[in-house]
Design a protein that fits this description.
homodimer; 255 residues; alpha+beta; Glutamine Phosphoribosylpyrophosphate, subunit 1, domain 1; seven-stranded antiparallel sheet; six-stranded antiparallel sheet; 15 strands; globular; EgtC-like (chains A, B); transferase (chains A, B); transferase activity (chains A, B); GATase_2_dom (chains A, B)
Chain lengths: 255, 255
């Protein structure tokens, strides 16, 4: 199994603090050393970094810990291979374009006997169950809505149905974003925290590091962090229910 | 106009030396400071770095100059905006998937009145003529060959025809790769050099830096570098003919 991290905010925010703790699980405080990746939306564009080295030793992970890329939607993943070789093309997150937007996807879990019919519009480059699931999701969204993106409520309903069908094949914890909303589905384990005014000092669980968010934010900032295991020891993390799909917009889950 | 750099090799090779000279044109020895990008194939996977900062000041460009990523196919671009805002989504190279392979594309030139009919399979995320051309190329390749990639000779012939049609709209110097072959088309200016045994010491034009390739290669290595303007002062660069599409495989142009 792998670990997932995502961030959704109402203003572009850097993920340096949370990524620093998360990256340690890629070979130091945990055993996820079969690659890692992170994608940042910046406007309509995406910065996409993947590496098949362990996150703790990767020079690119080092850069991201030091270089504050500001984004409203970020998805990161550290990999412990279950299906698919240790290779760059199997590193999450995956990126595809649909409806003139980039979509970013990462998955934690293991889908058994999941070989959906793919019509060729989106085809996996690597050999993971995860990329197959991503290609299938986009294919089905396009089949339902044609060439025009639907309103968010319709998209959410369609994803809930599609994701629950895929989750019948096994654990399907996922993060998906088109740069405006962040979709997070929990099969087995996910939790989130919303950081907003009044901001506190947060203490990383994976390293002796803390940050006083009140010093680096404005009272209007709001940031949701969604992750496999809580990243800090002194914040209140909310657990997802198994089978739950949450949609985060502007730093908070939609009702 | 922008500048292009590509590398095609028979064994995975790092591009640190050539990129170091090239990146200086992104704001130092030349005026291409509206962003830059580079993509490296590694197996079937792609590492894709884009930045809307000038290449000379970008921390990510600095990383690439120091971190020897080895690849058989690399495409890089520094941008001087002609069409499209200075924004991440307008930075080349662009990446899409077709036939279960990633395709990487970068363009130097300016296409006038180029608004092809796009059927929705590949749609631009940004607002450049270049990304429109890339989407159109992939759409037409898929329309001709369906869901199965054709042999290289057929692909080359189709691309030659499609590219020449697009080039009727203006300058269309381009680099395109699917990770196995590198296609380079010249409208106005491109040149290349093949580095092979016996290797010499090369001297960068843009910086007082040289490298003795005989120290860092084996006699079997072969590397083609294709670029807008020659990068070195003491190698023999071959100019493309306007209208010429060359295909590089294993470090040399096909006949």
């Amino acid at each position: 199994m792998c670990q997932l991290l995502a961030m959704n905010c109402n203003v572009p925010t850097d993920i340096v603090f949370s990524f620093t703790g998360f990256a340690l699980r890629g070979g130091s405080t945990d055993t996820h050393h079969d690659g890692w990746g992170i994608a940042f939306f910046e406007g309509a564009g995406v910065r996409h970094f993947v590496d098949h080295q362990a996150a703790v030793t990767s020079p690119i992970a080092e850069l991201i810990k030091r270089y504050p890329i500001k984004s409203k939607n970020v998805i990161a993943h550290i990999r412990k291979a279950t299906q698919g070789r240790v290779a760059l093309e199997n590193c999450h997150p995956f990126v595809r374009e649909l409806w003139g937007r980039y979509w970013v996807f990462a998955h934690n879990g293991d889908l058994k006997h999941f070989f959906p019919v793919l019509d060729g519009a989106f085809r996996p480059v690597g050999d993971t169950d995860s990329e197959r699931a991503f290609c299938f999701l986009l294919q089905e969204l396009r089949a339902r809505f044609g060439d025009v993106a639907p309103p968010l409520a319709q998209l959410r309903a369609a994803l809930a149905e599609l994701v629950s069908g895929i989750a019948a094949h096994g654990a399907f914890n996922l993060m998906l974003s088109d740069g405006s909303a962040l979709f997070a589905h929990c099969s087995t384990r996910l939790c989130y925290v919303v950081r907003q005014y009044p901001f506190v000092t947060a203490q990383l669980s994976d390293e002796d590091l803390n940050v006083d968010f009140s010093q680096v934010t404005t009272p209007d900032d709001r940031v949701a962090i969604i992750v496999t295991e809580p990243l800090t020891t002194n914040e209140r993390w909310t657990e997802f229910q198994p089978g739950e799909l949450k949609v985060f917009v502007d730093g908070q889950p939609l009702p």
